[in-house]
Design the sequence.
């Protein structure tokens, strides 16, 4: 049975496949190291104290998230602060991406917070010196809220989102699409986010995307440099490069990882937009298609597992209609950008599976394309047969 045909088993912990145990940090060491760093960062009379450090159960596949409870004195008042440190993964952890540039993520979040109403957590410090925690990191405020779970996926059964009413899910859906509309409306992104412009990119959406696509092929080459290659991913890259849509409109700020699993909600309303490591300048359809595709990825898995899923949620036509109503721009070429989303996710998951194999948590399949959980989805998209089978 291929990876694309294998449903989640009751005992499988896919969070540990994405985050091998050997890459986890020691919390006692982190607390002492962060205490020392924070003491040096704040004034002498702040009397900084780190009360606790923990790693969340749902830590990410890339940068490591550390939750920090600290207190210090400021302007004569003693206050407690709930913080999050995002730490660049070490090379021994076989990272998902070749580089992370934590300072750029910090800069994106700071600029988005200043230039829009998008609810990004306040960012406090960026530390490029790896000597403090063993790798560069940045610190932001911790926001309380609910996140649609990935393990088990929110559409597989009992979860706060699955158990919500259709009206509540629609409220969440529309508010999430509105986040994309607000991001894409940030004025003059070429100036405000010039640090995101790829060196070989022009100013239009098409020119930016072509550079982005070339960078994606480079990422695939890096991800497979010391392991198997994927004929399916290479086929998809070739098809995408041969069929780039014309788009003379200006490039916008794209969140990149625009999925609801990267948003914290309170009463089905976004309160924190997270994970900016894939931010880029490009066509707005990249974000729209990614949001839809990541839900379709979970829906396809639910179908294989014989589960009802949430077929009335994040439907492509509903997302496109809401986006058009919010922006006046009707998303175009969504078939194409859906293939691109499936390709990007395939390459990431190929790397994740390579990590799992390297850490002894999975066996290498006979066919490398079986390392892609949504193999059939990508194949059908390339053949033009996917959307006709979507309920």
Sequence:
């Amino acid at each position: 049975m291929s990876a694309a045909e294998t449903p989640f088993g009751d005992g499988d912990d896919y969070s540990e496949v994405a985050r091998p145990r050997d890459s986890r940090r020691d919390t006692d060491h982190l607390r002492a190291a962060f205490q020392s760093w924070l003491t040096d960062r704040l004034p002498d009379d702040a009397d900084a104290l780190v009360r606790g450090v923990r790693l969340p159960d749902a830590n990410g596949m890339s940068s490591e998230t550390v939750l920090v409870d600290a207190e210090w004195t400021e302007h004569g008042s003693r206050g407690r602060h709930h913080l999050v440190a995002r730490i660049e993964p070490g090379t021994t952890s076989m990272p998902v991406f070749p580089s992370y540039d934590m300072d750029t993520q910090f800069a994106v979040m700071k600029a988005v917070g200043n230039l829009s109403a998008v609810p990004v957590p306040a960012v406090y410090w960026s530390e490029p010196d790896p000597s403090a925690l063993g790798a560069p990191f940045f610190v932001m405020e911790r926001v309380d809220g609910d996140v649609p779970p990935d393990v088990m996926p929110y559409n597989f059964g009992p979860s706060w989102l699955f158990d919500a009413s259709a009206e509540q899910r629609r409220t969440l859906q529309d508010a999430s699409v509105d986040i994309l509309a607000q991001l894409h409306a940030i004025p003059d992104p070429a100036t405000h986010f010039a640090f995101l412009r790829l060196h070989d990119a022009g100013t239009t959406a098409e020119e930016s995307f072509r550079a982005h696509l070339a960078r994606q092929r480079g990422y695939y080459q890096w991800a497979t440099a010391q392991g198997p290659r994927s004929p399916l991913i290479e086929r998809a890259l070739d098809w995408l490069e041969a069929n780039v849509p014309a788009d003379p409109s200006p490039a916008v700020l794209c969140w990149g990882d625009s999925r609801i699993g990267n948003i914290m909600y309170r009463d089905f309303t976004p309160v924190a937009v997270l994970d900016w490591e894939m931010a880029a300048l490009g066509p707005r359809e990249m974000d729209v298609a990614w949001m839809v595709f990541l839900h379709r990825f979970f829906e396809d898995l639910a179908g294989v597992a014989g589960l009802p899923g949430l077929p009335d949620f994040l439907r492509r036509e509903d997302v496109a209609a809401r986006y058009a109503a919010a922006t006046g721009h009707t998303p175009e070429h969504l078939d194409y950008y859906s293939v691109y989303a499936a390709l990007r996710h395939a390459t990431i998951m190929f790397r994740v599976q390579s990590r799992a194999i390297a850490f002894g948590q999975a066996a290498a399949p006979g066919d490398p394309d079986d390392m892609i959980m949504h193999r059939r989805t990508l194949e059908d998209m390339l053949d033009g047969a996917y959307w006709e089978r979507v309920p």
User: Anything to note?
Assistant: The two ends are 24 Å apart (CA to CA).
